[in-house]
Amino acid sequence: MRCNACWREVEGRAVSTTCGHLLCTEDASKILGNDGACPICDQVLSKSLMKPVDINPNDEWVNMAMAGVSPQILMKSAHRSIMFYIGQKELEMQFKMNRIVAQFRQKCEAMQEKFTEKLEQVHTAYQKMAKRCQMMEQEIESLSKDKQELQEKFAEKSRQKRKLDEMYDQLRSEYESVKRSALQPATNFYSRNEPDLFSNQANILDNREAVRKVDLFLADWPVLTPETPGPKEDIWPARQNSSNSGGPFDISVGSPAKQAAIPVDAVNRRAGAHPMFGTGASNPSMTLRNLILSPIKRPQLSRNRPQMFTF
């Protein structure tokens, strides 16, 4: 058994109290010297309430103590002894439990302190993250506004680009049309439907024969050379004969144009020939005006002759 004050294992003699507790001799002497109380139940102890006992009695004492005692008293003493032993064991178990609880309480307190530190750290980190999240939300809001503005600007720029593309395409088409019209030959401004001479192989020889007849007819048609009315002057006037004139090159005979001039009567003597410029031969200025303003009359085909070419 153990002392109920210091909880050391008791060997030899001990002191028992009327309150049912066991003390070692040293703790009992301290309690009696200080007029103290029982450490378990806080009952004030005195010397009359304390009795020394032998924890390990010898056989002789056991035989003499039990001699002459009735069985009822022995059973009663045994019952009290057993109840005392059970009480001591309960106190011992309670002490052990209290000691274990104290140890675990210390461990729990240490763990609680660490947990409190960790909780403070987590709380501090949470506050930092909350502030950071708030800042990020504000940044996201500002970025959303910037994004919306950029989208609006992009849409405006896209509309301007489409307009510029349309204007560019229009100007390019106009430039291409002007370029094609500038490169197009003058004969293509007034286009006409040209006949396909090779569409019908059976008419090729007939067309050739018709062309040959037209060429022969035009070749036989007389070409009239009109005479310039008015007084005639030499193109090359004759120079006065000088003292050194003579030799192989004598130009006094007149110009070649004067020698080769065709008389007016020769033109008028042709069959069916008529004066080309009317009755103004006596007026040189009028004749020159008519020559400038009026084109030379060319021979025309007869209206009753069928046309050889169709356009």
From TrEMBL:
This is RING-type domain-containing protein. Residues 2-43 form the RING-type domain. Keywords: Coiled coil. The lineage of its organism: Eukaryota, Viridiplantae, Streptophyta, Embryophyta, Tracheophyta. It comes from the Eukaryota. PANTHER family: E3 UBIQUITIN-PROTEIN LIGASE CCNB1IP1 HOMOLOG. GO terms for cellular component: chiasma. GO terms for biological process: chiasma assembly. InterPro entries: HEI10-like, Znf_RING, Znf_RING/FYVE/PHD. Residues 228-249 are annotated as: Disordered. Residues 126-181 form a coiled coil.
